[in-house]
Amino acid sequence: MRQPLVAGNWKMNGSTDSVNALIEGLRAGIDTVTTAEMAVCPPYVYIPQVAARLAGTPISYGAQDVSDQEAGAYTGEVAPGMLADIGCKYAIVGHSERRSIYGESDEFTASKFAAARKAGLIPILCVGELLEEREQGITEQVVERQLDAVIDLEGIAAFASAVIAYEPVWAIGTGKTATPDQAQDVHAFIRGKLAGLDKAVADGVRILYGGSMNPGNAAELLAMQDIDGGLIGGASLKPDDFLAIGQAANA
Ligand code: PGA
Hints:
This protein has 251 residues and is of the alpha/beta class. It contains 11 helices and 8 strands. It has helices at residues 16-29, 47-54, 80-85, 96-101, 106-118, 131-135, 139-154, 180-195, 199-204, 218-222, 239-247, and strands at residues 5-9, 37-41, 60-63, 90-93, 122-127, 163-166, 206-210, 229-232. The site of 2-phosphoglycolic acid (PGA) has 13 residues, from strand 8.
């Protein structure tokens, strides 16, 4: 049985005060989430504050990105070991904003994935197609290429301690969600591809959906067989909405 994971990607939002208010809201309602694991990924600078305020709750936390390097002269980077050191469980890698705005390639993403795992973090590997790629009918090829970069570097066994997030780029921050069937099709494709290499790993890996998931559409997405949770952007900044998505996964 795969435990659903509902992870919040706060992106570049927040202040000391708003972070405190957000965590207070999550603490107040976390008892209403009975099945899913809840996690938040704040901007780096707020992670220690979040860690302190989450103490004693079952909510885990992680980072939105991570360096592919372990230590040294890499100005501006944050090493995976540092994130592990401050209690992070997860690191998102290959988010479409990293890929498209900052030009991070499949291979670079794979090296971040490897570095995260080496430090004991669980990478949340984001994959997903652009609108024009969907329109060209090459969604599966794009997702396969993104997965293959990681499999080539790390091997299939690495997915025993990793999470995948399928995020169609056209659905991110647009209010345009993939239909449950559209999402399920790609999730099943991903699991099927992994199953061709290792059935047990494929059965165990959590595949999250991301892209305008909200309290209104979460239940029908989470009801699909191969959708094991969500990676939530906008709605994760509102504690009640984020909790409602978590509740939608209640058994
Ligand atoms: P969104 O973002 O929920 O705001 O669409 C999801 C993401 O980028 O991970």
